[in-house]
Amino acid sequence: MPKYIFVTGGVVSSVGKGIAVASIGTVLKSRGISVAIKKLDPYLNVDPGTMSPYQHGEVYVTKDGAETDLDLGNYERFTDIECTADSNTTSGQIYSTLITRERRGDFLGGTIQIVPHLTNEIKSRFKRLADRSGAEVLLIEVGGTVGDIEGQPFLEAIRQMRNDVGKNNVFYIHVTFLPYLQSTQELKTKPTQHSVNELRGMGIQPDAILCRADYPIAESLRDKIALFCDVEKQAVIPLTTASTIYEIPLMLEDCGFGQLIVDKLGISKREADLSEWRALVERIKTPHEPVNIALVGKYVELNDAYYSVREALYHAALHHDRSLNLFWVQSEELDKDEVENALRTAQGIIIPGGFGLRGIEGMINAARYARENKIPYLGLCLGMQVMTIEFARYVFNSEEPNSTEFDPDTKYPVIDYMLEQKTLQTKGGNMRLGNYPCRLVDDTRAARAYGQSLVQERHRHRLEFNNKYRAELGEAGMIFSGLSPDDMLVEICELRDHPWMVGCQFHPEFVSRPGRPHPLFRDFIGVAEDVFREGAQPPLPLETG
Ligand code: GLN
């Protein structure tokens, strides 16, 4: 039977609970323990796929095509485990399954209640993940903070688990925040005490408290939290803000938290090996020359909207011993006169995914600037479509070419809906989603990057390159370097007369890992780092004498 670790949050959200969970996964995995991770999201949407990035940040896509919370991206990047649809459950999914079953007559004669029907449905999702993953430890994060009204059924379900599987098989971790008071220059523990009280009110006594704080946490504060919250002192874990998130697993391990968890859960003793992780953090902390990358998008006010893109760029820069200097450019404001000013220092330009018309013309201006000035360019999904529209406008010498998403009546629909997408009446969960194979065409930049002939990449889009334009754009210099195995879909395109301008119809950012950057990101940064732009200083020659 697997062991369960449940992680709840208190005091405030956004203190890095997801990173803490991912880091606990890393610490366990470093002992050779198999782990599966799950996030419970209390909102009523079935998945975040229909939410604006302003509401939710990035939608992370799993290999099996689930649209999920961005925390799953951190789980994957930290533990290098591939998540599935079983790794994210929302209240919307639970209610919708239960009500469908009720209508079918599964409970004829009965009254359907939060306890036990809804909580049983939640627990059945734990079991499903346990059965399908076969993992020794299930790490389950409850989204939101304790006290949120929608989160109550999840807390009740994890409370019941203690009796269901036995108290030696569950471990409850509460992640809180210690605010700093400027006037008295001290961290305060009272909100943590209150939030633990709230959790106890739900019948859950935490086994450990992870205290997030922006300042060092004194021993006396750990004593106080241990006393007031009835937790062993060694289980009050100080987690001060780190210079890089990738340091968190080391902080947890070095304060003995990994050992504490395995001891408490009675998992046989195994040595932790975090040597690769230590080397990675060492490398991150070494000062490097910057590489300037402009990210042109419409959700740039909220960095979380492009979370995986930012991480993938960071991994690629690190691979080339560069630090990433990423600047965010609002595409809505990028008219033709502004583009030179906004992008003149960019050594590389990236256009990420997105939906809807807002900001599209600005992105097209950025793509034109990259093509004309031979600046390395990487287009991700929408970024590939934008690159195609821009190139078609140049080739046909017309402002008409467009995607039918933005102009349904365009004379040149170079990006268009697939037939099955045209007839859809609903919006949720029915894009081209998850892994699809892509065959690389020999002697192209894409094939050189991958060094493989067939790859799987994750998708999330409705529209595709319109094959009607393949011949004309191909003759003008667009190379179709990645295709579906049946040749019907363009998955990657690039420009012949340009140092490195590549667009892909999928989202490579989701599979980049800190020690293993995605090949397209790696080569994009590899070319960008050698580009000299206005105001840049060439690296000084090393002193020899
Ligand atoms: N809006 C485009 C489409 O649906 C691109 C989607 C994306 O970038 N993920 O095809």
Which short descriptors sum up this protein?
2 domains; 9-stranded mixed sheet; 545 residues; alpha/beta; binds glutamine; Rossmann fold; 7-stranded parallel sheet; 23 strands
List the topology elements:
Blueprint: E1 3-9, H1 17-29, E2 35-41, H2 53-56, E3 60-61, E4 67-68, H3 71-79, E5 88-90, H4 91-104, H5 114-133, E6 137-142, H6 152-165, E7 170-177, E8 180-181, E9 186-187, H7 190-201, E10 208-213, H8 219-229, E11 236-240, H9 248-254, H10 257-265, H11 275-285, E12 289-297, H12 307-319, E13 322-330, H13 339-343, E14 348-351, H14 360-372, E15 377-380, H15 382-395, E16 402-403, E17 413-417, H16 419-422, E18 432-440, H17 445-450, E19 454-461, E20 463-465, H18 470-475, E21 478-483, E22 490-495, E23 501-504, H19 519-528
Parallel strand pairs: 1-6, 1-7, 2-5, 2-6, 7-10, 10-11, 12-13, 12-14, 14-15, 15-23, 16-17
Antiparallel strand pairs: 3-4, 8-9, 17-20, 18-19, 18-21, 21-22, 22-23
The structure holds glutamine.
Number of strands: 23
Task: Give the C-alpha Rg.
Answer: 25 Å
Under CATH, the topology of the largest domain can be stated as Rossmann fold
- Mean pLDDT rating: 94
Number of helices: 19
Bound molecules: glutamine
Summary of the model, kept short:
The protein is of the alpha/beta class and 545 residues long. It contains 19 helices and 23 strands. Helix 1 packs across helix 9 and helix 5 crosses helix 6.
Characterization of this structure:
The structure is a single chain. The protein has 545 residues and is α/β, with parallel strands linked by helices. It has 2 domains: 3-280, Rossmann fold, CATH 3.40.50.300; 288-528, Rossmann fold, CATH 3.40.50.880. The chain is 36% helix and 22% strand. It is built from 19 helices and 23 strands. The strands form 5 sheets. The protein has a 9-stranded mixed beta sheet, with helices on both faces. A 7-stranded parallel beta sheet has the order 5-2-6-1-7-10-11, with helices on both faces. Strand 21 and strand 22 form a beta hairpin. Helix 1 runs parallel beside helix 3 (71-79) and helix 12 (307-319) packs across helix 19 (519-528). The radius of gyration is 25 Å and the shape is globular. The termini are far apart. It binds glutamine. Residues 353-355, 381-382, 385, 405, 460-463 line the site of glutamine (GLN). Glutamine binds at residues 353-355, 381-382, 385, 405, 460-463.
